[in-house]
Write a structure and sequence with these properties.
- By secondary structure, the protein is of the alpha+beta class.
- It has 1 helix and 2 strands, in the order αββ.
- The radius of gyration is 16 Å and the shape is flat.
Length: about 60
Amino acid sequence: MNTAQKTPSKHSVLVLNALKQATSNEIEKKRRLGQYVVLWENDAIVYKGDDAPGQEKS
């Protein structure tokens, strides 16, 4: 398997930045509305927010 890293294209960088901005905007919107968000952190599903359901231990 070839794992050599190369510089991403300008288009790839633009797409990645757009996705990051859209995600940030939606998370902020949910925070302002008092809704929780579901994220993937440290190989686990994480619920964040005041009204988030309880975390299940696996």
